[in-house]
Amino acid sequence: MLGHRFPAALGLPRGLLLGRSVTRRSLSAMAGGEAEGPLGGFFDYMERLRNYERSGVPRGAGTDSDDGFDLGRMRRLLRRLGDPHTDFPAVHIAGTKGKGSTAALLSNIMRAQGYNVGSYSSPHLLTIRERISVGNDGGPVPVRLLSDLFDGAKEAIDEAIELENGSLTHFEVFTALSFLLFSQENVDIAIIEAGLGGARDATNVIRSTELAASVITTVGREHLVALGGSLQSIAIAKSGIIKQGQPVVIGGPFSAVIEQIIRDRAFLTQSPVISACDPGIKSFTKCIDWDNGKPYQRCYFSINISNDVPLSIEMHDINLQLLGDHQRQNAVTAACTALCLRSLVKDGKSLMLLSKLA
Q1: Phi, psi of 97 (to 5 degrees)
Q2: Angle at CA 198, nearest 5°, toward 209 and 80?
Q3: What global pTM score does this model have?
């Protein structure tokens, strides 16, 4: 089971570049210098779709209100593709800051233990392929794999766009393609980063039956207008990824008001809460060192939580290539999430994880 293979330390593989910390040069190397040529038709197709990342998100679009994005059209698109998002367990991550790093760290933990991991994030630096990774290397989805995926799905996507009167967006179509790829590649688990907010984000079609855990890293003022105009409305939007009976890991630190909003949502959905700021967690940076010309912080973690989901581990030498106290906190959040997954399997609380990850 998953718990038997959790690493004794959250050490990252040497030379691995995570999330938004990569440079353009290193990203090109990570992509293997692969020609994008076969994807020309795919890029042209995607360019014709409405792209709110470029045009700006409308007021209130990320809120769970009449102004919010319509998740119905996303569900209808996925239905035409065979509901691929129901074929794998998922960890759903939202947050103003830190969600990309937390997703990358958690994906690394799972890959290091030999699991076939699907990862979906946004935005990208050089190529949209960076948003999807699948398998053990963590690199951008290969050109040919994405090209074949699109060719096989194009007819269904065309039909969906016509039926939705052209309202399907760039983000919705690409999110659906990522779910389809994870299904076809039979991933053991998918780590999915929300785009905007949470409640009305296209990724929030994940049902409680497939959700292994939700994670909320931080709540800040980014996309304030699109998410309702206040920190409280942003917290409500992000807590929309919490699902009935499934655990939520909160990163933080949060103000008391914001944390209470998240905990209130968890209470309504009967979802266990694991806080990465729990008094039973200790972490500090022991030193900054260098490896092959790259700096890293060597950290100590002790996690001993006895609340909703008991978690316990001590890790003395974690070599974290993402620097700063905030990245250490992201690593704690990722570690709590991985431990939460282990506990769920061990305790038999998630049949999906038992069947997929045993």
Answers
A1: -130, 155
A2: 55
A3: 0.88
The burial of 148, by beta-carbon neighbours within 10 Å (0-12 exposed, 13-18 middle, 19 or more buried), is given as: middle
Q: Which two tokens mark 61?
A: 């679009």
pLDDT higher than threshold 80 for residue 296: yes
Residue 285: CB partners within 8 Å, gap ≥ 6?
297, 298, 299, 325, 328
Residues 6+ apart with CB under 8 A from 159: 80
Q: What is the pLDDT of residue 250?
A: 98
Residues 6+ apart with CB under 8 A from 339: 6, 303, 311, 312, 313
Number of helices (H) and strands (E) in the chain: give both, helices first: 11, 10
Amino acid at 355: S
Do residues 234 and 224 lie in contact, with contact meaning Cβ atoms separated by under 8 Å?
yes
Residue 345 vs residues 28, 34, 238, 275, 311: alpha-carbon distances, Å: 38, 38, 26, 20, 13
Of the candidates 327, 300, 325, the one whose C-alpha atom is nearest the C-alpha of residue 313 is 300
The count of C-alpha atoms lying within 13 angstroms of the C-alpha of 334, restricted to the half-sphere facing its C-beta, is: 29
Q: Name 323's Cβ contacts closer than 8 Å, sequence gap at least 6.
A: 288, 295, 296, 297
> Residue 116's closest CA among 97, 101, 135, 137?
135
CA distance 27 to 33: 9
User: Residue 266, exposed/middle/buried by CB under 10 A (0-12, 13-18, 19+)?
Assistant: buried
Q: Extract the tokens encoding 225.
A: 């207008």
- Residues 108-162: tens digit of each pLDDT: 999 988 889 999 998 888 899 999 999 888 899 999 999 999 999 999 999 999 9
The identity of residue 239, as a single letter, is S
Question: Peptide bond before 38: cis, by omega within 30 degrees of 0?
Answer: no
Helix (H, G, I), strand (E, B) or coil at 122: coil
- CATH 2.40.50.140 describes domain 2-357: no
Most distant CA atoms of the chain, gap in Å: 57
Amino acid in the structure at residue 255:
S
